[in-house]
Design a protein that fits this description.
Length: 238
C-alpha cells in the first residue's frame, strides 16, 4: 500500500498533461497505462498482477500490441516489471514525478541542439534515418556485437536482438551492429541461444561469452546508449 493518500484528480492531470506527451505515449500505450493506473495507484496499491490476454480482452485490443505497450512502459520507466510467469505479469507502478524522463523535462535540464530528450530517445525508431542507423554502428565501433569480429562498414548489418516476429522494436535497446554472417545465422533465434552456439563452435572464449551476455543485459537496461546521444557536440539530428 502507498504511505499517503493520492489526489486522483491531480494524478490524472499529471498523466494526461505531462507524462503522456513527454514520453510520447501512443493511444494503445495510454490505454494500457491508464487501466493499470486505475487499478493500482488510484486505489492505493503500488503493485498489480495481471494477465496480458485478459487485459487485451478488457481493452478490446490484440494481445501483441498490449504486450508491446507493457514492454515500452517498462523501458520508459512508467512501470517496472517485477515478474513474468504463466499466470501473468507483476508490475510496480510509478508516479509521474518518480519517472526519470519526466523529472528531467520538468527540471529543464539543458541538452545539445538536436539531441532528443530521454523520453524521445526511448521512442525513437533507429531504423528511420541513415544518421540514426549509423549511431548504432558507431556504438559498436566496427565490431560485431555477437562474435566481436571487426568488419568494414560495407559488411556491417543491423540486427534485432528480439526479432521483429516476436515484436522486437527498432529501439537502441534492441538494435545492434553485427557482421553479415551473424545476422544471417542468428535469424529469429534468441540472442542468448545464438551466443552460446558461437561459444560451442569455438568462436567465443568463455570470458567473451560472459562479456557478451553481460552486454545483452546492459543493452536491455538502456545502458548502451548510442555515443551521439551522450556527447553534446556530436548529437544526431532527427
Amino acid at each position: 500500500m502507498l504511505n499517503k493518500k493520492l489526489n486522483a484528480k491531480l494524478l490524472w492531470m499529471q498523466f494526461e498533461d505531462v507524462l503522456a506527451p513527454r514520453l510520447g505515449l501512443t493511444v494503445k500505450d495510454r490505454a494500457v497505462y491508464s487501466y493499470l493506473l486505475r487499478h493500482s495507484l488510484v486505489v492505493g496499491k503500488l503493485r498489480l498482477q495481471f494477465a496480458v490476454m485478459s487485459l487485451a480482452r478488457t481493452l478490446g485490443l490484440s494481445v501483441g500490441p498490449v504486450r508491446q505497450a507493457v514492454r515500452r512502459l517498462d523501458e520508459m520507466g512508467a512501470l517496472r516489471v517485477l515478474e513474468r510467469s504463466q499466470t501473468g505479469h507483476m508490475v510496480e507502478m510509478r508516479l509521474p514525478e518518480k519517472i526519470r524522463a519526466v523529472r528531467r523535462g520538468k527540471n529543464g535540464a539543458s541538452r545539445a541542439a538536436g539531441e532528443p530528450p530521454a523520453a524521445t530517445l526511448e521512442t525513437t525508431d533507429f531504423l528511420k534515418t541513415w544518421a540514426l542507423r549509423k549511431a548504432i554502428h558507431d556504438r559498436e565501433r566496427g565490431a560485431c556485437f555477437y562474435c566481436h569480429r571487426r568488419n568494414p562498414a560495407n559488411l556491417q548489418r543491423l540486427d534485432h536482438v528480439v526479432p521483429r516476429v516476436r515484436f522486437g522494436r527498432n529501439s537502441y535497446r534492441n538494435l545492434v551492429s553485427c557482421c553479415i554472417e551473424c545476422n544471417t545465422r542468428k535469424g529469429d533465434r534468441p540472442a542468448r541461444d545464438f551466443l552460446r552456439t558461437l561459444y560451442r563452435q569455438g568462436r567465443l572464449t568463455p570470458a567473451e561469452l560472459d562479456g557478451r551476455l553481460r552486454a545483452l543485459k546492459d543493452l536491455a537496461a538502456g545502458k548502451l546508449r548510442p555515443s551521439a546521444f551522450d556527447a553534446p557536440r556530436t548529437a544526431v539530428k532527427t
